[in-house]
Specification:
509 residues; mainly alpha; Sodium/glucose cotransporter; 22 helices; 0% strand; globular
Amino acid sequence: MLIKLVAVVAYLMILLAIGAVASRRMKDVKDYFAAGKRLGFWAVAFSARATGESAWLLIGLTGMGAAVGAKALWVVLGEVLGVSIAWLVMCRPFKALTDRYESITVPDYLEDRFRDRTHRLRIVAAVALVVFVTIYVSAQIDATGKAFESFLGWNYFLGIAVGFAVVLVYILAGGFLAVAWSDVFQGSLMFLGLTSLPIVGLVVLGGPAEFASRLRAIDPGLLSLAGPGDGWTLATILSIVPLLLIGLGFLGSPQIFVRFIALRDKSEIKKGAGVAILFTVLSDLGAVFVGMVGRALLTGPGQELDLVLGGDGENVLPMLVEHLLPLLLVGAFVAIVLSAIMSTVDSLLVLASSALVRDVYQKVLHPTLPDDKLVTKSRTATFVLATIALLIAVGVALTTPDRTVFWFVIFGWSGISATFCPTLILSLFWSRLTANGAVAAMVVGFACVPLFKFAAPLVPVAGPHLAALGELPPAFLLSGLAGIVVSLFDRTGQAKVAGAEQELIEARR
């Protein structure tokens, strides 16, 4: 236990040191929210991937690999497609336009792109960010408690308190720059851990053939892309769709795209794309195979998954690490799991505080307030939002003991994605999208996520199919349609964006 604790303390101290160093380079709100727009491709790629993965990768996706086997590979494909399109198709025009408009937040970009001076877009975007980002952060805080509980045997609530305190200290000290630097460090830990552990497991098992043989004895469906169950049925296909479309969330989510704003210049994009795509392929495959190797090593035919590996297999990573590795490396894996969690918490808190302070307090309520007066208020907003997320996490833990990290995270991820991604996609590739259309798209996406999550599954006959489909695909589709339909009938708005087509052409060069 002492060795594990030393590894965790060393990891936490490194994060605090990063915050202290970054604080010396932070001079204004541009530094706090976008690192002065001077980051290189390596920092942006690792930061974007570390933020985009979060606790669901090391706890949720590994658990999914243990529970459904090869079916979890659909998630890998969906993520790779999403990351590739975001970097190779969307990043260049978005970077060009945000530089042209001197944007430091996504709502900054939206307001200038649609020539909106009513602040409706900014307010809708800020509200959506605060709501769903807070939920997303609470899911990560919940995962922190589970990680300390699983690896170190700590009380769940003590674990979330320690993780929460450390993240808050280095964010408040160093802002986005501390977030980006810490993400490079934490992303590297995640990558090394997820790519090495399944290899060690395969060696212990005796090779791929023995691995496949054991899984086949437990359940042949674990080796099928259809997963355990009845094979390729309509329900199976519908359940695969949300896994394959999980990459939709990379096509405009502010916590990802704010990193493109922070890039030094467009020459960094291709190099960043290569790093980000390789990171995604290897780390996501590693997570799935950690789960599958853990299932093969730690369970046998006839054994219930929940009884051995916990609900939905989400204890597979800590149990596999304890089974395979010496204590010092077990301690390192505690740090790796915490890296996945904290690299997302820090980014989301800075994003949410930017929505409150930059997009509402300054731009709407106090438009003459200079940027250099906002850093203290940004820190206050970060602290308040973090505290609210902590209270939500504690409340969910007390009332929903059978929750899983994967689907808790996915709800917050879906809310952000459905609200912003269709609007960002249309804004970059369809010049006729108007401010009214963008507002309609964001409101519909925002509303449809809880609708399809909680109400749609109760619909007679179609309910089970809608539940299998998930909330993101239909919410995403309806959001995009709302933006297109409203824009086509918005003649006044069309006149305001008359010059957008030439801007988009130049941005894509």
